[in-house]
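Escalation from tier 1.

The customer reports that the assembly of two entities below gives different structure tokens on two consecutive runs. Tier 1 could not reproduce it. I'm attaching the input and our single run for tier 2 to review.
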Amino acid sequence: SQQGEEDPQALSIQEGENATMNCSYKTSINNLQWYRQNSGRGLVHLILIRSNEREKHSGRLRVTLDTSKKSSSLLITASRAADTASYFCAGGKGSYIPTFGRGTSLIVHP
Amino acid sequence: GAVVSQHPSWVICKSGTSVKIECRSLDFQATTMFWYRQFPKQSLMLMATSNEGSKATYEQGVEKDKFLINHASLTLSTLTVTSAHPEDSSFYICSARGPGDQPQHFGDGTRLSIL
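Tier 1 run:
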């Protein structure tokens, strides 16, 4: 399996601030995926970054990947109260099964 | 984008009842489907992986006779919790993935409450 471990476990910020969360993984991957989970819902796929990419943007999201350190970061700029959720990462490689850590619980105060 | 529909979203039933949860990929062919269980404020625990047309692979500690998984087509997988008891109460989430290095797409989950 390709388990990601997210850090910090919890993050509380004010609306408008940036939120940064990190992910570490243990084995080689072909891509890394970030997901968001709102309370009581399934996971929503946010962004996928491939192992030959170092940085990727999607709207207010910026993801970096450092394969030498086996780590990734997710930056949410100009956060909004609606960004309040748990965020998970998972590595992917062929038929490997991505599994999830505890996630980062983000609270954005209006 | 890829959509996965999970049904029902909420089930409340008596102890001893069997409950079936459906997971459908609506606009893509899901060669692999996954079933997870999640307790409050915890991570998703992978229960089993199923490939279309073959038997599911269960994670260690998951009773295959308790949690029956069927993946009869490229768009449908079902999880049946047999003779459910209160300790089976949880949030069950399915996901589906196409071939290759594709991301998983998740259903909205099913909250199962056994009285």
